[in-house]
Write a structure and sequence with these properties.
heterodimer, A: alpha+beta, 6 helices, B: 162 residues, mainly alpha
């Protein structure tokens, strides 16, 4: 064998061995900094994630096959039972839906009466979750649809229980979504009972949200439901987010701190609903006003843009 | 002279390691997932050093970063450090008895967890779950079997082709 002659490393040897190591470590370091700080990392990742797609596809194959087999051998009687149950649920839900439609119409009319400025229109789309475990220290999931099927960065993700998170990266055929509970995530919420507006931060644990800096006099108590307030325009208003578990004074003693439990099933689900807020009537407004009035129009446009940009993922610096 | 293994076995095994990394496991177990990619790299570094080096480790780490959504460059750095240590102690590691080799590999994986901990702390991602510390132990338990399996694969292939 050729590799037996490996004498004790001399100085020149060790220098020659260390140099490539240092070079690689430097490249890795630059990549990491670029990824965590700059925009470049996200762009590169979006391009290169195309290469990772076969891996995800293959890794999710066993569970896909398992599901198909399970569905195939499900016995006839259990299918009948399920069918009956689903039909009953459908009836109940249709009834509920009719009521909601009536309420929505009424709401729309009232909005119009108020000359409502928050004329958002909801667009929803059902998307499957690729059954793949990403890094457990970052709370993310992989969605089975991408740019090709109209998924966009910033779309909110909900399930039957409530808000799940939002889309942060979109590839051609898959998208990555940040969950509510990721430490980098924040969502503007409102206490359903009192209307108090707060911001809920993720903690990195799947069953915990944190609401810091609540004034002492604020009306919030355990058991309160938190819903999205719709401020910022990224999450549609009124979806349930969490239930308050505990309210206690924070370290400084000047403010209160609340802990809440997300209502959505964050850990395991099969499908999620992607919701996009489209501003109604952005394109089909009245013709441009004459030049003197142009400034005011610009201002309102700026405000709308600011509101949208004030989004819900605060930069990490702003949170600490 | 046919000392090497076919590229299929080598890169196929590394790709398999990548798959295992993102394979869905029940919650709770997934954090203790053995770092199979690192184990495979250690094996190939020991057995065919003329084809697998720091560059391979770096590329494998980069692809793993992409596939598992970690910080771009994190696993690349961890695997390069691991590969460097293996290269440095290769002569000794190769002639250890199997259980001793497994212990050394376990120590390497533990060191790898520490590097990951430092990277996470600096990047401010938050400390990993305590279950991740079980992963080096699983790697230690897995190493002898992996070693025997890959040796068998390699020798059989050499017989067939040579």
């Amino acid at each position: 064998m050729a590799y037996t002659g490996n004498p004790a490393p001399r100085l020149s040897d060790s220098a020659a061995g260390t140099l490539p190591l240092l070079a690689y470590l430097a490249i890795a370091l630059v990549l990491m900094v670029a990824d965590s700080r700059g925009d470049f990392g996200a762009k590169a990742r979006a391009q290169l994630s195309l290469a990772a797609e076969p891996v995800w596809w293959l890794a999710s194959a066993p569970s896909r096959i398992g599901r198909t087999v399970r569905e195939n051998i499900a016995s006839r009687s259990s299918l009948q039972d399920e069918n009956l149950r689903l039909r009953r649920e459908l009836e109940v839900n249709t009834a509920r839906l009719h009521r909601l439609l009536a309420v929505a119409e009424e709401n729309q009319r009232l909005r119009e009466l108020l000359g409502g400025t928050r004329g958002y229109r909801l667009q929803a789309r059902l998307v499957g979750i690729l059954d793949v475990d990403l890094d457990p220290s970052r709370q993310r999931i992989l969605l089975d649809a991408g740019r090709d099927s109209g998924v966009e960065v910033g779309q909110a993700m909900i399930d039957a229980g409530g808000v799940l998170g939002q889309v942060i990266e979109v590839g051609p055929r898959s998208a990555t979504a940040l969950l509510l509970t990721d430490p980098d995530h924040a969502v503007p919420v409102q206490v359903a009972r009192s209307g108090l507006r707060l911001i809920a931060f993720g903690t990195g644990r799947a069953d915990r949200l944190l609401l810091p800096n609540i004034p002492q006099s604020a009306d919030i108590r355990p058991g309160d439901r938190l819903v999205t307030s719709g401020i910022g325009g990224r999450f549609p208003a009124g979806f349930p987010v969490a239930v308050v578990d505990e309210v206690r004074p924070d370290e400084s003693g000047l403010f209160m701190l609340a802990e809440a439990r997300p209502t959505a099933r964050l850990d395991r689900g099969v499908e999620v609903l992607l919701v996009a807020n489209t501003l109604e009537g952005v394109d089909d407004g009245p013709p441009l006003p004459p030049p003197p009035a142009d400034e005011t129009a610009d201002e309102t446009a700026d405000e709308a843009a600011d509101e949208a940009a004030a989004g819900n993922t605060l930069p990490p610096e702003a949170r600490r | 002279m046919n000392r090497g293994v076919s590229a299929w076995v080598l890169y196929g095994s590394l790709f398999f390691g990548l798959l295992v990394m993102v394979l869905p496991l029940p919650a709770g177990i997934d954090v203790a997932r053995p770092y199979l990619l690192a184990l495979l790299l250690v094996y190939w570094l020991l057995e065919c050093p003329h084809r697998v080096g720091l560059g391979t480790a770096f590329l494998a780490g980069l692809v793993a970063d992409l596939a598992s959504g970690t910080l771009l460059g994190e696993q690349a750095m961890r695997l390069v450090i691991l590969a460097f240590l293996v290269q440095r102690f290769r002569a000794r590691l190769r002639f250890f008895p199997l259980w001793q080799q497994a212990a050394a590999v376990g120590a390497l994986l533990l060191n790898d967890r520490l590097v990951a901990l430092v990277i996470h702390a600096v990047a401010g991602i938050g400390l990993p779950h305590w279950g991740t510390w079980v992963s080096p132990l699983l790697g230690f338990a897995l190493w002898p079997w992996l070693f025997l399996l890959l040796d068998e694969l390699r020798l059989r292939q050499r017989e067939r082709t040579g």
